[in-house]
């Protein structure tokens, strides 16, 4: 018999760096809640790179339906969900490729990485050097990075030069 996995979505609260307490879509695996939205397009998932350049699938987790311990992750996930909603409602585009692509984000990327980027497959958000920059996860930055993805898939540009110069 085939195993059928059922994901139960939960609307949880998260501390945000820039927007106080926000609501984010999550899922529960039984013992943990994950910043993983399985209902929007192909999904929106937020991972923790733990100040490395590693792309392991380390979801941001919480023991309860409140993500207060990582406002950087809460900000990035909330902003990705809102940017997805913008493209769906205002541009009639389902995700950045109009084909329900999964939106993947890694927060705490690198060691004091002073930037955010779309690398052609997913988004990376640095925490910045705390003496100079705040973490790069505000709504406008997340929307900017997802627009790189949108441009890559909608304009038939190679992700270099034109598409990279958004």
Task: Give the helix/strand layout.
Layout: E1 9-15, E2 21-28, E3 33-34, E4 36-37, E5 44-52, E6 61-62, E7 66-67, H1 71-90, E8 103-109, E9 116-118, E10 123-126, H2 139-154
Helix pairs in contact: 1-2
Characterise the protein shown here.
The chain has about 170 residues and is of the alpha/beta class. About 20% of the residues lie in helices and about 30% in strands. The strands form two sheets. The chain has a five-stranded mixed beta sheet, with helices on one face. Strands 4-5-8-10-9 form a five-stranded mixed beta sheet, covered by helices on one side. A hairpin with a 6-residue loop joins strand 4 and strand 5. Helix 1 crosses helix 2. The longest helix is centred in the middle third of the chain and has 20 residues, at about 70-90. It is globular. The relative contact order is 0.16.
Q: Would you kindly provide a brief summary of this structure?
A:
With 166 residues, the protein is an alpha/beta fold.
What oligomeric assembly is this protein in? Answer: single chain
Which strand order does the major sheet show? 6-3-2-1-7
Give the C-alpha Rg. Answer: 16 Å
User: What is the element string, with H for helices and E for strands?
Assistant: EEEEEEEHEEEH
Strand content: 25-35%
Q: Helicity level, as a percent range?
A: 10-25%
Structural class: alpha/beta
For the record, give the distance between the C-alpha atoms at the N and C termini, rounded to a whole number: 49 Å
General shape = globular
Number of alpha- plus pi-helical segments: 2
Strand segment tally: 10
- Average residue-wise pLDDT: 90
Q: Strand count, sense and closure of the main sheet?
A: 5 strands, mixed
Unreliable runs: none
């Amino acid at each position: 018999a085939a195993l059928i996995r059922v994901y139960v979505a939960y609307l949880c609260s998260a501390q945000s760096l820039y927007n106080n307490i926000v609501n984010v879509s999550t899922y529960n695996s039984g013992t943990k809640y994950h910043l993983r939205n399985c209902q929007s397009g192909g999904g929106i998932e937020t991972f923790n790179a733990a100040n490395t350049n590693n792309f392991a699938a380390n979801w941001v987790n919480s023991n309860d339906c409140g993500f207060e311990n990582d406002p950087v992750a809460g900000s990035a996930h909330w902003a990705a969900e809102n940017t997805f909603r913008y493209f769906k409602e205002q541009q009639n585009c389902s995700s950045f490729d109009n084909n329900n692509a999964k939106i993947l984000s890694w927060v705490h990327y690198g060691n004091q990485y002073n930037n955010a980027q779309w690398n052609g497959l997913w988004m990376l958000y640095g925490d910045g050097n705390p003496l100079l920059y705040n973490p790069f996860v505000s709504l406008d930055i997340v929307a900017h990075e997802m627009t790189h993805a949108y441009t890559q898939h909608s304009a038939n540009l190679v992700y270099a030069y034109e598409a990279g110069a958004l």
